[in-house]
Amino acid sequence: xxxxxxxGGGLVQPEGSLRLSCTTSGFRFSAYAMAWYRQAPGKQRERxxxxxxxxxxxxxxxxxxxxxxxxxxTKNTLYxxxxxxxxxDTAIYYCNAINQGRPxxxxxxxxxxxxxxx
Length: 118
Prior knowledge:
With 118 residues, the protein is mainly β. 0% of the residues lie in helices and 50% in strands. The mean pLDDT is 97.
C-alpha cells in the first residue's frame, strides 16, 4: 500500500520559516515526480510545488521565490522548505506523486497543518 506521511508543520509568525517532510513507502519513489499540495478550509486543494524525477521544479506563482522543493531518493522523502511565510499560506499541506499535472495516488496522507499568524 502506498503510504504518504507529512510532518513538520506548526504555528509560525509571518516571515517565519518551516521545513515540511513527506516520508513515503509502497512505491518506487525515485521513479515518480512528486508534489506538495495545500488545502485551506472551504477552498480547493491546490498544487504549490512539484519536482521531477531529476531536478526540474515547478512553483505556483504565489510561492515562487519563497518555497523550495527537494527530494532525497535515498530516504524516499520529499521536502518543502518554506520561508517568508504569509497568513495566506495557512493550510493543511499534503504530498503526492504527480502525473500530467494531477495527483497520482488516490490515497492521501493525513497532511500537516501550517498556520501563519501573529
